[in-house]
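Same chain as my last thread, 686 residues:
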Amino acid sequence: MAYLGPRLGRSRVFIPGVSAFRLLGTLGMADMGLAVSRSPLERLDFDNVALKKLPLDSSEEPGQRQVKGACFSLVKPQPLTKPRFVAVSHEALALLGLSGEEVMNDPLGPEYLSGSKVMPGSEPAAHCYCGHQFGQFAGQLGDGAACYLGEVKVPPGQDPELLRENPSGRWEIQVKGAGLTPFSRTADGRKVLRSSIREFLCSEVMFFLGVPTTRAGSVVTSDSRVIRDVYYSGNPRHERCSVVVRIAPTFLRFGSFEIFKRADEHTGRQGPSYGRDEIRGQMLDYVIEMFYPEIQQNHPDRVERNVAFFKEVMRRTARLVALWQCVGFCHGVLNTDNMSILGLTLDYGPYGFMDRFDPDFICNASDNSGRYSYQAQPAICRWNLVKLAEALAPELPPDRAENVMDEYLDLYNGFYLENMRKKLGLLKKDEPEDEILITELLQTMHNTGADFTNTFRSLSQISCPTEGESEEEEQLVKKATDLLLEQCASSEELKAANKPTMDPRELAMLLSMAQSNPALFQMISDRTTIARQLERLSKLKDLMETSQEELKTQQAEEWGRWITRYRKRLAREMEGHSDAQAAQEERVTVMDSANPRVVLRNYIAQNAIEAAENGDFSEVQRVLKVLEKPFSSQPGLELPAWVGGGPATERGERDEGDEQLRESTARNPVPYDSKPPAWAHEICVT
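reply #2:
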């Protein structure tokens, strides 16, 4: 792993007027030994402002309970047996002024960063929030597995850009998987290697992709065990308890303000702090003063301040989801309790980066209705913002909130088109037809089953038309077409993708019910779901009647038409440029910095998880290193670590009963930047 030297650690203390000799003379040998061996994590400068400024439930009563009139509850993290590091992010730990190398080599590091030991100055607590889950108000939720450890003051010399994004001057640290809290409900407050590695890796790759996100500092695993039914198949197995460290300016979310909600008309549930309107005002003051200081300073009128705050949250959310769409990221569980009040990607569960482009892509196998599909994300984020506005009333007048929300769609489209133009290398001119060109590109990708990430990455290799080209236009279009055909799906892949997910008998029954008993039909299904199943059947029928050769010809014709239009648009882009070569180089540079070479595809994460469950953590560390430079080629890091037969660590850590997951070394390896292998389509994330 790359070495990050000691950074910003307070290793020397100078006391004015006291000589170094005299100072040393006041220390006994035991004190000196303690000073030398002190853990770097014991030097963190905590300033837990949230617990000072927001109501705190001081009860440490064990077990699930309603927490009324409080935003946080004090908790006691539960220690793990033999905690040890799987991986650390040097870049994320540097936010706290820590050296990743120093933390990795610290004997107390795994204990402190799993919650097994409490760092000096840390005040473990769990946050109370509510949420709308899959469109229904769920009442009290809260940190069921996450645990606030405290807020660390930003170390001297931090990047000014980071300080601009985090004006509070502190970083909140959480551990996720440290045991029971008042909000654990029927669960045990623990996380396992699978979920911890996925959250750790995705938190970091999103940052390096340029998408606003919470960060992850480390993953710790242990000899402590919990029972999990991986596939909900009735075959539970023991898995290792693991903990991920999360870092952000704050983990407050839309649902934080829903604890004041009156009884919901559909579910009957209400927020635990209903009627405590003074706490809502207190929370608003805290969030705006700490994280939106410019709004606080520029709006002395309270209502105007709150409107400006909501407008900025709306703007950040629109920008965030536009960036998700442009990298093919699907969150999977866009409930209001998973939406950051700072516009950060928050809570990485059953997320997924799209492989074959499909606007109906659903990454969460539990999302049967497709509520949180890829193409639904912009509308769902708008829906969640409306729920936030409702939660902020009367501090935020409803009519003012409605006016703000009227701007959402235009803002989102603006952010989306701005990023898409970069991805297509349309840098000099904004033409109205660009939106049509982008739509036709996505439609062609969908029709041909093209890989989302690799198709966009390939576009920079399509040349701009120039005067005196040595090759004919037809030859250049064919060359570009052949390039993109490499990313298209085969006939068998498309047949598998278009196979209906509903049993034919169930589909026939629902179609009959829609005609004979519409009221009952509306209770158990919806027309969108049925239409999607019928569309799949229609496509499957067409594919069954088309040979592979015919399909490839169709795909080539579709791509040829789009590439011809694209090159005409590039020609207009070049008009007025005296140095065509320089313009072309600039275009390629911008495109290759907007279209990643590698993202965290499910199969890449799965390989790392399986290796770690076998006791080999090197693949997690290797994948992190690759993902830290997602836009660059990294010689020597093209393939998984196990391909070269590299040394495995701690081989004795195999989990029981999971041989079906131990197949990575037997699979044909593919580079990190390739289309997914066939077995990847069998991965199920819930």
